[in-house]
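Sample entry follows:

:::
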Amino acid sequence: MDACAPCSEVCGAPAAGDCCTGHANPACSNAACCELICAADSFCCNIEWDNTCAAQARTQCVACSKLGDFNGDGVVNSADLAILLSAWGTPGGDLDGDGFTSPRTSASC
């Protein structure tokens, strides 16, 4: 039996619950994310979408990504600002991949 067969019946149901947080229901409300996580861990769709399932979703699903959440805890707060500031002026501070850590003027090439 396909480990994700039950997933296809419950993944994406609005009542299933948020994919980014743990809850007692099996599966989660975003079908694409749910199927991705359940393919690797059938417990998430067969038994319960616990904190382990939610943690996997936060690292693997676009539905759970938050702009500015640099430490991946699901919250944008001062801890994320500290990470940003500590990387400022270094290659790790290049958020958009343009090779710069600060805005460029139109005269820059």
Residues 67 and 76 are 8 Å apart (CA to CA).
